[in-house]
């Protein structure tokens, strides 16, 4: 049902946790399915130097959040602004159609992050 890479991110999620200020923390919600993604990023010198997440949601949301944190780390705000849901989809080996909402949740978290971090 799920690709191997997606299951690997689900079973061994990366960067789970929280960051304290001056990190920027945002929370994205999907009202249709109830998934919640909390994303925290600390920027230094214009680049994301630390990224953490917590999620309450399905297998795909957990895996997508893990893949998102790996993608963000080390990137500039401009690079992060270029995020598209396909980034997460590709990183987990392809989201099944019924799970594409997980990539949309990540996109919303990135949008909120950029708005909150100026």
Give the topology, please.
Elements: H1 4-11, E1 24-29, E2 36-44, E3 47-56, H2 59-72, H3 77-81, H4 85-91, H5 101-117
Antiparallel strand pairs: 1-2, 2-3
Helix pairs in contact: 1-2, 2-4, 2-5, 4-5
Portion of residues within helices: 40-55%
How many strands in all?
A: 3
Overall mean pLDDT: 96
Distance between the termini: 39 Å
Largest sheet composition? 3 strands, antiparallel
Rounded to an integer, what's the Rg over CA atoms? 13 Å
Task: Give the name of the CATH architecture.
Answer: Alpha-Beta Complex
Share in β-strands:
15-25%
If strands are numbered along the chain, what order do they take across the biggest sheet? 1-2-3
Order of helices and strands: HEEEHHHH
Question: What key phrases describe this protein's structure?
Answer:
single chain, 118 residues, alpha+beta, Sufe protein. Chain: A, three-stranded antiparallel beta sheet, 43% helix, globular
How would you explain this protein's 3D organization?
By secondary structure, the chain is an alpha+beta fold. It has a single domain (about 5-115), classed as Sufe protein. Chain: A. Helices cover about 45% and strands about 20% of the residues. The protein has helices spanning about 5-10, 60-70, 75-80, 85-90, 100-115; strands spanning about 25-30, 35-45, 45-55. A 3-stranded antiparallel β-sheet has the order 1-2-3, covered by helices on one side. A hairpin with a 6-residue loop joins strand 1 (about 25-30) and strand 2. Helix 2 (about 60-70) crosses helix 4 (about 85-90) and helix 2 crosses helix 5.
């Amino acid at each position: 049902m799920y690709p191997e890479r997606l299951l690997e991110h689900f079973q061994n999620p990366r960067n789970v946790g929280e960051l304290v200020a001056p990190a920027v923390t945002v929370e994205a919600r999907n009202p249709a399915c109830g998934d919640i993604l909390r994303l925290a990023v600390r920027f230094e010198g214009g680049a994301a130097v630390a990224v953490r997440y917590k999620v309450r949601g399905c297998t795909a949301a957990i895996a997508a959040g893990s893949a998102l944190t790996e993608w963000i780390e080390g990137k500039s705000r401009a690079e992060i602004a270029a995020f598209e849901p396909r980034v997460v989809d590709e990183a987990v080996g392809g989201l099944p159609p019924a799970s594409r909402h997980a990539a949309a949740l990540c996109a919303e978290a990135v949008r909120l992050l950029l708005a909150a971090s100026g």
